[in-house]
Amino acid sequence: MTAMEQMGQKARQAARELNAVSGTQKNAALEAMASSLEEQTGAVLEANDRDITRARAAGMIDSMIDRLRLTKERVAGMAAGIRSIRALTDPVGEVMEGRRLENGLEVRKVRVPMGVIGIIYEARPNVTSDAAALCLKAGSAVILRGGKEAIESNRAVAQALRAGLEAAGLQPDTVQLVEDTSRETAAAMMKMNGYIDLLIPRGGAGLIRSVVENATVPVIQTGVGNCHIYVDESADADMAQAIVVNAKASRPSVCNAAETLLIHSGAAPALLPPLAAALREKGVRLRCCGRAAALLPGVPVEPAEEADWATEYLDYILAVRVVDSLEEAMDHIARYGTGHSECIVTENYEHAQRFTREVDAAAVYVNASTRFTDGGEFGMGAEIGISTQKLHARGPMGLRELTTVKYIVNGSGQIR
Amino acid sequence: MTAMEQMGQKARQAARELNAVSGTQKNAALEAMASSLEEQTGAVLEANDRDITRARAAGMIDSMIDRLRLTKERVAGMAAGIRSIRALTDPVGEVMEGRRLENGLEVRKVRVPMGVIGIIYEARPNVTSDAAALCLKAGSAVILRGGKEAIESNRAVAQALRAGLEAAGLQPDTVQLVEDTSRETAAAMMKMNGYIDLLIPRGGAGLIRSVVENATVPVIQTGVGNCHIYVDESADADMAQAIVVNAKASRPSVCNAAETLLIHSGAAPALLPPLAAALREKGVRLRCCGRAAALLPGVPVEPAEEADWATEYLDYILAVRVVDSLEEAMDHIARYGTGHSECIVTENYEHAQRFTREVDAAAVYVNASTRFTDGGEFGMGAEIGISTQKLHARGPMGLRELTTVKYIVNGSGQIR
Questions:
Q1: Residue of B256, B372, B374, B401 to mutate for A, most A C-beta atoms under 10 A
Q2: Do B415 and A379 touch (CB under 8 A)?
Q3: Which of A121, A170, B106, B175 is most buried (CB neighbours < 10 A)?
Q4: What is the pLDDT of residues B12-33, one digit of tens each?
């Protein structure tokens, strides 16, 4: 048995034990994990220093180092995050539906833990505590495989969390960290059928693609968002400008930020020049189709190429295309969208109805910024990611999306 | 572009068009498909004759030929099946939940079509019409890839269904049959990311394993059921006997039939001899552990080997093991079960509670036969299979399990 299979077996056993653990015990364990993390702040920061030193020596860029860095405040934030997950409603045990059949059988569909969840992530050490807390609250054991850049930090955080579990009388193997950060361990997790019930990659497009292509265990794809704002002919000009600027420039590095503006040819001549000015004021560069560029004489725009329509910039860049109809906009979105968040700005009722019905994405907006696609904004509490696939979970994934269901059937001797 | 990619593209286009089709139109199309199938009965039976002739020449066994064979009555049954699916409630458009956020955004979680569903199946031609009708009712286009043994029958059925779609004014490519039944087309379907949103294998364990191991598109595993009946010390003797006999012998070839009897050592001396006699009367052979065999002197039982505990016989064979506790029974099920249907027969309240909470399976029964795990029995109407995985759907899969969800967000200019 390989080391990974041994971890899988321990996780399986921990998951079985969790089935007999009450919500009160889980909450006590989450509190103990938060306290333990606070107590271990010094050790966590020392470990993080070693990661940072190594990253600097390896020439990591500053923005990446900032993602990797922990401070006293950030560790306190991680502990607060665990406590806010503790405060959420326990999803396990919810009776989703039920009925008594003609033959007297009582059938209930009940929410139950997933079992063992695997998370493969990159350089943010706070994912270690967030994911562990969400999985525990959802009743599952977790195997965490973070990036090599953060291994010292992750190890210190995981040790603190496991000490908390133990102090609360739960099995510490409920949370396990893969300490070997070679490619082989990630590849092994993707094939751990029978040990891992759900694998979630959290990170860039390359990581996600690799997991989707190679995993034989069930996977949920998260995150890639090539999001569009379509400004219809009837759009309110001020509203359109506010939404486009917000969706692009309020936080360009996140998946619910807009990447392409589609604007109706009837609205473009009046709307595009002031909109371009507002965007450029926020530092946004524009990649324009020929018709859009022609409406912006004297404005330094770049020509959009085919690849621009398919690019998730995650940066202060916006692709702009003039279209002649709602249909053309929806065709563009069907072709280039990633099924994350799509928006129409319109005052036309029928167009709003058609767009919401016909555009195939996790979240479809009328007259609001795509930036609202977020578990917190949608009122789910913490999220483990935003699913862009159609199976099991779509859109922000909260605690419920980390569970599965079971039919419980109570009888009195019924046979068929 | 390969032939399979072309089919994928046609299916994608048909799926987009389906988003604008009303429930009334879908129902009219289902009625037209049923009528067309009835009208084409002659052509379908002729095609089926050619399949049967070829199968006989290839030496196919009689029970397989019976699965393959269509008769006038069976074709009428397929048409009736389409009409019963037509009569089910349309799952598309259901608002599952919704709320108005503080900022005035109205968020609704709405059930929407999956898009394109692929089905890979073996020698039963009735799957062609069942799967096509279920997918259409759920708003999705379907790509059907049946076994080579049934290709002539499947082609004739698919032609009839497509003629019905066309007569009702829907895109015939809503239902497509893969006519090339080589291994390559099945393998290609498993990798059609971007074209196929959900792939469901329907068939034996070998087919399912191959799909799970090779698919990069999302898959739902169906069907393998190594189901257990645990007869607790406190079980009512008559009830235990009725349930075990029913679960094993009422229809051994189906996935919800029992394969192993676990019996408490305190109950076994009194219960096992009459139970063995009742089972043998139904033609069931017993594969017993040493302790069970010792309780059945003079009864011709076979010794159970390790492999028996893991075998889905789908036959008149039952493995029997004596255990000393509820825990030992649950350990056995955790080790060998496939997460399909598991039953405890008991009069002990706490044991019933623990078994239903701690056993990890799609359906967990107290005092009722495992044979009830079925979409029809559970009141879902027709089912496309029984999922034994935890993601998306678990247990009988009806129309709702063939859909996904979308968040629709209506605003009035909200930005974040």
A1: B372
A2: no
A3: B175
A4: 999 999 998 999 999 999 999 9
- What's the CA gap between A66 and A27, in Å, rounded? 31
Q: Which residues pair with B366 in a beta bridge?
A: A410, B344
CB A358 to CB B411 under 8 A? no
If we measure between CA atoms, which residue out of A259, A268, A233 comes closest to residue A345? A233
Which residues of chain B have a CB within 8 Å of the CB of A371? 415-416
Q: Identify which of A162, A146, A166 has the alpha carbon closest to the alpha carbon of residue A154.
A: A146
State the Cα–Cα distance between residues B297 and A126, nearest whole angstrom.
Answer: 64
Q: What is the pTM of this model?
A: 0.91
Query: Which DSSP letter does residue B372 get?
Result: G
Task: Write the DSSP string, A131-192.
Answer: HHHHHHHTT-EEEEE--GGGHHHHHHHHHHHHHHHHHTTS-GGGEEE----SHHHHHHHHT-
State which H helix or E strand residue A327 sits in: helix A326-336
- Buried b / exposed e over B115-124, threshold 16 CB at 10 Å, is bbbbbbbbbb
SS3 labels along B33-54: HHHHHHHCHHHHHHHHHHHHHH
CB-based burial label for A20 (10 Å; 0-12, 13-18, 19+): exposed
Instruction: Give per-residue pLDDT as tens, A340-368.
Output: 999 999 999 999 999 999 999 999 999 99
